[in-house]
Amino acid sequence: MIRNLIFLLVIFLGTPGFSQVQINYRTDNIPAELKNRANAVIRNMETTVDMRSPENVIITVKKVMTIFNDNGNKKGALVLFYDKNTAIKSVRGQTFNSFGMATGKFSLSDFIDQSAVDDGTLYGDYRVKAYLFNPISYPYTISYEYEIRNKQNLVIPDWYTNPDADVSVEKSSYTFISKPEDKVRIKEYNFKGNPEILKSEKFSSYTWKVQNISAYKPEPYAPVEDKYLAHVKIAPEQFTYYGHKGSYTNWEELGKWFYNDLIKTRQKLSPQTIQEVTELVKGISDDKEKARKIYDYVQKKTRYISVQIGIGGFQPFEAEEVHRSGYGDCKGLVNYTQSLLKAAGINSYYCLVYGSRTKQSFEPDFANIEGNHIILCIPSKTDTTWLECTSQESPFGYLGGFTDDRTVLACTENGGILLKTPTLTTQQNLLKRNAELTIDQEGNVTGKIKTDFSGSQYDNYAYLTHKSYTDQLKALKDEYDIDNINFSDFKLVQKKDDNPKATETVNLSIQKFASKTSSRVYLVPNAFNKSGTISELKNRTLPLYINRGYTDEDEIIYTIPEGYTIEIKPKDQEIRSPFGIYAVSIKQNGSKLYYTRKISINQGTYAPEKYAEYATFINRINQADHDKIVFKLN
Amino acid sequence: MKQFLLLFSILLSTVTLNAQDFEYGQITNDELALKNARPDSNANAIVTREFGTTKMKVDYDAGLQFMEFQYHVRIKIFNKNGYKHGTITIPLSVSGAGNETLINLKATTINYINGVQTKTILDNKDTFTEKSSKNQSLIKFTMPNLNEGSIIEYSYTLQSPYVFNFRGWQFQSAIPKLHSEYIAYIPATFNYNAILRGKQKLTYENAEVNKACYNVNHTVIDCSKMTYIMKDVPAFIEEAYMTAPRNFISAIHYELADHIGTDGLKTKITRSWNDLDRDLIKHQDFGQQIKKKEVFKDLIPGIIKNSETSLDKAKAIYAYIAKNIKHNFYTGIYSSGIKKSFEQHSGSTGDINISLIAALSAAGLDAEALILSTRSNGTLNNLYPILTEFDYIVAKVNIADQCYLLDASQPFLPFGLLPLECINGKGRVINLTKPSYWYDLKASQKESTNYMLNATLDADGKIKGTLTTYSSGYAALDKRIQISKSTSTDDFVEKLDERMTGMTITDHKIENLDSLDQPVIETYEIEMNAFDHMDQEQLFYNPFIISRITTNPFNLNERTYPVDLGSASESRIMINIKMPENFTLADKPQDVVISLPNSGGKYATAIALNNNFLSVSQILQMNRSMYAPEEYLSLKEFYSRIVQLQKTDILLKTK
């Protein structure tokens, strides 16, 4: 992954004033609407980004915040990230009780200092200093100011008016200062109003101000936060980054700089390596087949290891270095694969992307350095191929749910291009299960299951692939969380062609699956695939967002023992809604009982008021999934 | 023939006594051919051989003693899931007292491609040092060129100035080991207590004198050479509901008992409880802090002015300390100064609970310190008094014939209840004037929840009524913590309402949130849809509407380690529903009493329809917090029967 940029994007704010009593910090002065639903309130915050030169960007933050309870206390924490390019110049702060009386002071020496490298990274050079106040009572007020110096201006932190859920904002402002001759592009999102602009001979400045923003509550099935939070993005035209200089005003120029400055020089292969590639694809004429061969070679040879050193995590390791060590991060592995493809005469694109299960795209109308992951694209007029190079298991051409259906930036020698990765549709994301189960007189069940997983569901079982057989059987007990279930003869077959499919076959037994009383037997025919419930929100404010569609089709054929007569059976039903379809039916034919269930959910964004309808739809499915058949014993 | 026999016996003796490092890079045919079958076919990787040794050395130039630990291991990687064992992190302690250093790091990946051996040596520049926190650096590297079937090998030497912490050894890890060997050279001037933990047995153990191994101030000192070998060690697999893994991992630990300094004087570190008592009482950060009653002397009259009995006084002081000194997330048995921590309103468990002991004593109450080892820290050994095994301190106050254990550092704990984390075997009571003694740590209350639903089934198929929940003991603690995570109680109830689909909360009341000695009482007016329409001849209804158990927490087929549920628990559910007059109960789940062996627990139900009142009562008791691995299958069966029973319905018929 690219070095996590989030820390650069999150800003904390404050106000000055270090006297003993601050009348205006009295907590009873806070307007009621700002206390509602809030764990904390930002009383005043002033963020200033002063771009004195491309190598010298000073960020100062002054912030006063009142914390109401323990949950809010984490929001009062002051967390400052730094690295070779980012220096913490000064910090000071003070705490006040609810009457505005000063209770203590703190400075940088009170901070803990530790590595900010995440667990998935072998090495990175970024660190964090953090301070968390430990109050004896609430509410209390914390006030601090700090200054950070960035030795680059490629990444200017985004400013959010109210970045945190459950925190309200009394006053906050953001000022961006640059030289009059500096050209910058600015874009506001979800922001009402205009900045104050000041221009003089020495500087120009832009100031955005907000006040009295109530706390918002996080809501499930909401779009990504950038879709609804007000924020401002700034991108200077001329920039410096770790000694690299450049300029851009659009994606084309940014992509061009990125490729020519950071990537192109890292692709040199030794003659032996080139020879190896030539040998590898010898006799293959079709480019796609060549690429398949090379991808397979990379998957066998390399593994994902994240090491972040040097230029802010944007520049890949040398291709030859990855060849030698057999490992790399997403940049290194994509760059390596691209270099090998080039040696075989195949053109490909190094693509920046937001990798996450929740889809997030690059904005066509505002070029800015973004994303957290790299993938590779082999362009073709009719048959473009996308490759995930960090996986040793992905089928050739399969991206999966981590990078599907979103706009990415392809960095090429001739310029950046925005491309869209393929969409996995509701129909493609298919789980299809057939089971044959026999119930005995005691209610015990034995039988077998066959399940196909495709589309985004292809990798549902990916984590099982290299587990030992015993561990696979153990893991299945969690997958099929049924009391007293036991498995045997488990097989997982992966068909890695253009439409990848994983097929599970397994035999199983479940003791006392059907529950007996003296005269009756109860059976929930939907043995394996029950939908959960979702919260029925009272006041939905955000749009309803369904990230990815899918289809599940289950069929179970039960053989029931003699003497079981159906007394009650759930009614067959089909529930249609704008969000999808659910259909369930039970048919009997002699001793055979046919249970079928089909659910298909569509992706999409809907108005907030549609949420209630969606919750009803999902919760009705949950009910139907738990319906029971009651048998009378003869 | 004679020669042959001689040779044979020499070979034999080297097999048993060949306790020494193995040769770097010399892969044996056995290792080459090794498949993941022995001792554990589930392994993704296996340690084929591992060797470590620790010696005490002297740096004559600097005039310093240091400990030198040499480590050497060879691992076979079977498959891609085993690659993670090719990434290595070695922690080094760094602090004011000195820095540990790593030297002579060597690492090689050995591959066989078409029968040809290739070696890739780790490049120095691919080794990283990360200063992870104030007191720790990490040396990190990952093996180059890993393939399925690769053999990796690395060795290093670690030098440590912490001569009093003799390095221990873990025989067991996340992957199995064929051969794990450790040799400790302990100079005669140092006397350590060695503690062997875990289920696995040593294959070989030997002690011999190693002459003149160590030289301090021109005095030649002998060492005890201790050799330990463990073979065919299975992987350590964590299980759900498990106490601290370190209780079960096979390993050897050392604790310094005494040592003779360079001046020839013997310093006792720990020998007996008497010594330890004396040390603790004299200790600046322990006994000397407990004695500082004067810190609270002037405040006490104000704190206890409304208290009549000793118990009331103790409660008032407990509440005062809990309110006025907040926990700063550090634990430990010491206080760096109770006065300072009281002034700053912030402190470690040590600061807070030593303050509590001092304050209780200042009020004339009989208060003692109780030190213990938390669950995650592991079980105390029974052989020697080892101070570093203790990681937590609480106050013990004795009033009349009653003892109360108090922890003022954790929020929402009622007087006399310890956090579950502290309920771990026994603790040692340290008294300033009397010898110390063991004290059994038993939870003073269990986790207990009572539900009562009184409701009416309307003609339109709706159940409306009042659900009252009483949570006490650890259940009350959990509930208070949960509620505190919401912005307000209204917010808590709103989220609860949203989560419970099919049920609506129309009104609510939550009592005793701040009265920690009382149960938390939640009262909800609820409505739920039981039937779409009532005009049917027969109606099936599942009566287990509250806290239904749908999955079995013990669903595996075997268990290696004890099951630890934290505390004993009890849950009672009583439902009374007034039914329309025209119904009879035609079928119902059988009334049962299911018991666990050895009075381990009980589940009982009773369902009846009398005078148009449907009553459903259930009780689930787990009488112990700990169950032996042999009891696992009983637990599984116990829960399985509950799950089955709760799947069945009642059948109502119209008269």
UniProtKB/TrEMBL annotation, chain A:
Q: Which residues form the DUF3857 domain?
A: 59-216
Residues annotated as domain Transglutaminase-like: 279-373
- Record domain DUF3858: where: 540-631
Question: What Gene3D superfamilies does this protein map onto?
Answer: 2.60.120.1130, 2.60.40.3140, 3.10.620.30
User: A Pfam family name for this chain?
Assistant: Transglut_core
Residue ranges of the TM segments: none
Q: Which residues form a coiled coil?
A: none
Provide the protein name.
Transglutaminase superfamily protein
Origin organism of this chain? Pedobacter metabolipauper
Task: Please name the taxonomic classification of the source.
Answer: Bacteria, Pseudomonadati, Bacteroidota, Sphingobacteriia, Sphingobacteriales
From TrEMBL, chain B:
The residue ranges of the DUF3857 domain are 68-194
Keyword entries, A-Z = Signal
In the UniProt record, does the keyword Signal occur? yes
Give the InterPro entries listed for this entry: DUF3857, Papain-like_cys_pep_sf
Q: Is Cell cycle one of the keywords UniProt gives this record?
A: no
Quick one: signal sequence residues?
Answer: 1-19
Per the UniProt record, the source organism is Pedobacter metabolipauper
For this protein's source organism, the top of the classification is: Bacteria, Pseudomonadati, Bacteroidota, Sphingobacteriia, Sphingobacteriales
Q: Which residues cross the membrane?
A: none
Fetch the Pfam families from UniProt. Answer: DUF3857
| Protein known as | Uncharacterized protein DUF3857
